[in-house]
Amino acid sequence: xxxEAINHRATIPxxxxxxxxxxxxxLETKKGDVEAVELIFADxxxxxxxxxxxxxxxxxxxxSSQLTDYWKVSVQPEYRxxxxxxxxxxxxxxxxxxxxxxxxxxxxxDIGNYFCMPYLHENxxxxxxxxxxxxxxxxxxxxxxxNGDSSLNPEGKRPWGSEKPSPTNFFGxxxxxxxxxxxxxxxxxxxGIYFTPIFKAYSNHKYDTIDYFEIDPQFGDxxxxxxxxxxxxxRGIKVxxxxxxxxxxxxxxxxxxxxxxxxxxxxxxxxxxWEFPVKAEGYPNYDAFGFVASMPKLNTANPEVKxxxxxxxxxxxxxxxxxxxxxxxxxxxxxxxxxxxxKVVKEVKPEAYILGEIWHDAMPWLQGDQFDAVMNYPFTxxxxxxxxxxxxxxxxxxDSITNVLHMYPQNVNEPAFNLLDSHDTARILTMAEGNKExxxxxxVFQMSFVGSPCIxxxxxxxxxxxxxxxxxxxxxxxxxxxxxxxxxxxxxxxxMRKEVLGFGNCANFRFLKIDGNTVxxxxxxxxxxxxxxxxxxxxxxYIEIEALSNRKAIELFSNQEVLxxxxxxxxxxxxxxxxxLHN
Length: 583
Known about the structure:
The protein is α+β, with helices and mostly antiparallel strands. Among the domains are: about 5-125, Immunoglobulin-like (Sandwich); about 245-295, Oligo-1,6-glucosidase, Domain 2 (Oligo-1,6-glucosidase, domain 2, Alpha-Beta Complex), CATH 3.90.400; about 510-580, Sandwich (Immunoglobulin-like), CATH 2.60.40. About 20% of the residues lie in helices and about 25% in strands. The protein has an 8-stranded parallel sheet with strand order 20-19-18-17-14-13-22-21. Strands 3, 6, 9, 10, 11 and 12 form a 6-stranded antiparallel sheet that branches. It is globular and about 75 Å long.
């Protein structure tokens, strides 16, 4: 047995409270090395005489990568306390006891050897808003979605869609344009809108804030925004705004004061200034977003800055009833600020959704005291590189997704923000080199995965675009130029996600088989069981799926009832099937 590959620590994500009664525990072992794992556990004070009254419970293998098997188990300790270890058995029936203090051949007597969960405190449990798990998001870049009020057009506004998007051109998108097309979003099945920044700013993207308490005049006024939020809510659509608290814009009044008064400015400690005089051209002599001089980094440890930004967070929730905040460059802001941010927002609206922009492993932000979710780029990267660009083979894809599912607890995975592209990336149809069948596979996988999926505006009708600024085209509202077939396909997937038990969230996911360019995965929610087969190649495939043997099922995309007497499934080039199994 490869004991050096056995991995567990008594910290998240290896052990965590699923709810106020349930503890979930995970162990990692070398792939194929261990045949069975049992949890050894009991209350640390449960003795009869000098004998610890431990119990055992079989753990379940929930996934495998090329290197690792993942084992999980749930227990409900009577007194919310736990000491525990593991018994691993290999194919030769060799048994090893795994404890915090090392490995043993027999179960040790001293409970001080064991891993410890001191007490399950309810206020330590990670809790995200339940509504997020059933939400399908739609990301809107307001300047490019729709122009509904020409009186607001910014200076130099270009005719809608008349030229390629650039870092400096404007087309006049506004709130009225969004209001005018809310029925379109409802028809698609959208239940949440994520707006990129709407506050007063100099650029077309608005990530260079001038005033955090004011709407950018090209979008409308506060009353129009209030009407937009209300009309969204009337349709069952949540509204999430983008908060840029890592940095301000060049024309932010406190930064302008620093440029004018230099070391005598009362705002000099609002920023991370290296030296005076401050140089705001070329390579800055202060911390900024990247090295962009027009985006000076805010000092969120400064009490005045902190109060100002927390007042902003409270104001838009309290005054306009928004449902969430997406936090830009969240990993570069201190944890103490985010803990206070959460307290302020949840005090006003306990069910508000707090989403951080983090592109890497975000476990430090996802322990219940800061964010409800992060933008799930590890999921995005795997899906895009496998389906869209086909730079990843099936086994590597399955490994990446299996690792994504096990890098966070299940209750963290469920509200995760699963995007395929955004204003920061090329569009999926462009990444797929125009192959719509690959885009369909992407959507099947996204809509059937654990988490909260997001569609970038216009992808559902076939809009293309390369990296920023190419991905920020004007929305196409001429139905003759829209891909209506793709729209109906995405619409159907959203409907299936909402209506078919196990298709979407709150279901266990695991890969059943990898066969060439075909992946087979299972979704289970209680008695409901679905098996998905996706062929990521231009060849018809025949694949053996043992889980279908002698099972009755409905294939949901064709709505045909089938009895798989054998186990061979035919799947066309770039095809997809979903079998809903009957008991």
